[in-house]
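hey so i finally got around to running the thing on that chain from the lab meeting. sorry it took forever, my laptop kept dying and i had to restart like 3 times. anyway pasting the input first so we r on the same page abt which one it is
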Amino acid sequence: MSTAAAPSSTSRPTAAARLERLPFSGYHRTIFIIIAVAFFFDSVDLGTMTFVLGSIKTEFGLSSATTGLVASASFFGMVLGAAVAGLLADRFGRRPVFQWSMVLWGVASYLCSTAQSVDALIFYRVLLGIGMGMEFPIAQTLLSEFVPAASRGRLVALMDGFWPLGFITAGVVSYFVLPHFGWRSVFGLLAIPAVFVLIVRRIVPESPRWLEHRGRLHQADSVLAQIELKVMKSNGLASLPVPSMLAEPPAARAGSAFREIWGAAYRQRTIMVWLLWFFALLGFYGLTSWLGALMQQAGFAVTKSVLYTVLISLGGIPGFLCAAWLVERWGRKPTCIASLVGGGVMAYVYGQTALHADSVTLLIWTGLAMQFFLFGMWAVLYTYTPELYGTGARATGSGFASAIGRVGSLIGPYVVGVVLPMFGQGGVFTLGALSFGVAAFAVWVMGIETKGLALETLAAKAAPEASPEYRGVAVDEVR
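ok and heres what got predicted. didnt touch it at all, straight out
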C-alpha cells in the first residue's frame, strides 16, 4: 500500500509542473518512438492469429467452437497480464514491468512455434497473452506521464496507430511465410523483436511522476534534471520557463490502488471505461480474429483471404491519423462515440452485404470503411483511459480497464464460433455492431471530456466528489 503523497508545491516544483512547462522536443519524440515501436512489436504478435487461425484449424481438424477457443486463449492471458501489470506498475514502477512484459511475450511467441498439439498451443498463447496484456496498458501510462498535456492526446493516439501497422505487418509476414513454411515459422520469426527490450532498458527512464508519488524525491529530481537538459539541448534553449503551481490532490485512500479507482472520486469513470473496453473489444476481436477464416468459409483461398484482410486493414492507417487529429481538435468523448458508431454501422453493412456479394471491390471498400472507424476507436481508447485517473492509480485504472476489455476479447472469438453455425456470417457482424453501440452509449451517458487538461488537473476535478479535503488544490488548466 502506498502512503506517499505528492509533495507540496510550496516546498518545491512538482514533477508535473516541471514536465508540463517543457516545450515539445526531440527528446519527447525519441521516448515516443521507443515506446511506440515496442507497442508495434506487441501488436504484430496480437494480429498474427487473424491470419494463421484458418491454417491452425485445418491442420488440427478443429470444430468452429474449438477454433474460437484457440483464438481466445491469448485474450485470457491478457486479462491476467493487464490486471496484474497495473497493480505491479503502481507499486514497483512503470519501467521494469514494461521491460519484463516484452521478455515474456518474446519467449512465449517462440514457444508457440514449437507447439505440437492444440493443448500446448493454447497454453503458450495464454503465456503470450500475459506478456501482451502487461505491455499495452503500461505503454499508454508511461507515455502519458512523460508528455505535456498539449501534445499528450496526439502522441498517445499516434502510438496506438502502430497497432494497425503491426496488424498489417503480421498480414504481410503471413502472406509470404505462411504458404511456404507454415504457421509455426510465423510465430518463430515474431519472437525475434523481443531483443528490443535492451534499447528500452538503456534509454527510457522511470516516470518521475511515479517516483515523486512514491516519495522517492531525489530520484525524481535526478530524472527530471536529465530530461530538462536533454530538452534544452534538443531545442537549443539556454533556459526553461519557471514551473507553475501544479499539484495533484493527495492520495487519501485507505487501501490499494484498486480500491481508489472504485472510490467516490473515480467510480463513475471506472464504470464507464470498463463498459467501453468490454464491449468495444468484444466486438472488435470477435470480428477480426475470425475475419480471415470467414473469408475462407465464403470461398476465398488462404492466400486471397490473407491478402484481402491486409488490404482492408489499410483503412486503419487514415483511421488512427484522423482520430489523433480529432482528439485534440474535437475532443476525446465525441471522437470516441463517433468512431464506435461508425464502426458499428460499417460492421453491420459488411456482414450483411459485402461477404455475400460477388464483387471483390465492394468487399474491399466496405472493409476499408469498417477498419477506418475501428482502428480510430483504438486510438481514442488508449488516449482517453490513462487520463481518467491520478498518478497513484493510473496504471491500475488503465490495467484493469484493459483487463476487462480482454474479457470481452476472450469471449468475442468464442461467441462467434457458437453464433456462426446458428445465425451465419450476418449474425456475427450484427453482434459486433450491437457491441459497439453499447460501448458508445456508455461513453455518451457517463463519459467526461479530458482534452487539454493536465493529468493533475483531471485528478483534482475528480477529488472533490470524494471529500471536501481535496477542494482548493492549486491546479493550472492547460489551455
